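Design job #97: recover the sequence.
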């Protein structure tokens, strides 16, 4: 793809970049590509919540059992690997990248991500992973809760239909069964739950730049993001006034 061949842009000061938004808006792809272009680390926080959901499911814990979930969270070792551009998520020494992607795991993840004990444990881990900057984090509450002082914040959205279709295609390409109408309904259901939960709901940070990707391709969104990052860099370090 052409944008991969262009020279990497250089931002000497290492930013924290937050990309929040509902499922299927393109966060994972854009976050990975943006991190690649900036030579930053990509942190997919949804994959972290999914991995915790997998562990809770395997341990057979009740979602009411706060104490057991807290204990389990403290024992988990979640990390990412990047092998020549291929990103994987690991639970201890097991690659769980594919296991966490099914629809059932998506619904369970939405449920466990509402638990304060899970959020607290992943909040600490996310802050630790990103403490030196030079990271792109994607999730639901990165710009609002995890890094309210992030130098660049995006809120990426798209219509329900576009997001459902993308999720449907992603499921099929990962070898899962999927029905388009049902997938659109599940995407809506999950967004309602993620947006209405009490703790750290999906919300657009006041100072986030909204990008609606419904009628944009990945390349167009990426270029828009790069121009925002460059602009922000000039604004912060070259003393240029903001025109955003
Ligand atoms: O981005 P994703 O679809 O992989 O996220 C899975 C679920 O995890 C999603 O329903 C909401 C939750 N999540 C969250 O609550 N906070 C985050 N920072 C990331 C994901």
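Job complete. Output follows.
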């Amino acid at each position: 793809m052409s944008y991969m061949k262009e020279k990497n842009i250089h931002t000497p000061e290492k930013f924290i970049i937050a990309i929040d938004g509902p499922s299927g808006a393109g966060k994972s792809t854009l976050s990975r590509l943006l991190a690649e272009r900036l030579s930053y680390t990509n942190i997919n926080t949804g994959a972290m919540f999914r991995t915790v959901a997998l562990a809770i499911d395997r341990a057979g814990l009740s979602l009411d059992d706060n104490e057991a979930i807290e204990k389990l969270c403290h024992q988990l070792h979640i990390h990412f690997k990047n092998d020549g551009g291929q990103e994987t998520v690991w639970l201890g020494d097991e690659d769980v990248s594919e296991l966490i992607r099914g629809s059932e795991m998506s619904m369970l993840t939405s449920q466990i991500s509402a638990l304060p004990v899970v959020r607290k444990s992943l909040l600490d881990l996310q802050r630790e992973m990103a403490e030196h900057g030079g990271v792109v984090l994607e999730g639901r509450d990165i710009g609002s809760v995890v890094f309210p002082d992030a130098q660049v914040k995006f809120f990426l959205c798209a219509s329900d239909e576009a997001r459902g279709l993308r999720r449907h295609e992603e499921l099929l390409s990962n070898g899962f069964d999927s029905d388009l109408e049902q997938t659109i309904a599940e995407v809506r259901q999950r967004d309602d739950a993620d947006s209405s939960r009490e703790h750290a709901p999906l919300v657009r940070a006041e100072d986030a730049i909204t990008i609606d990707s419904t009628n944009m391709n990945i390349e167009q969104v990426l270029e828009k993001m790069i121009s925002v990052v460059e602009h922000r860099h000039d604004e912060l370090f070259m003393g240029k006034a903001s025109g955003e």
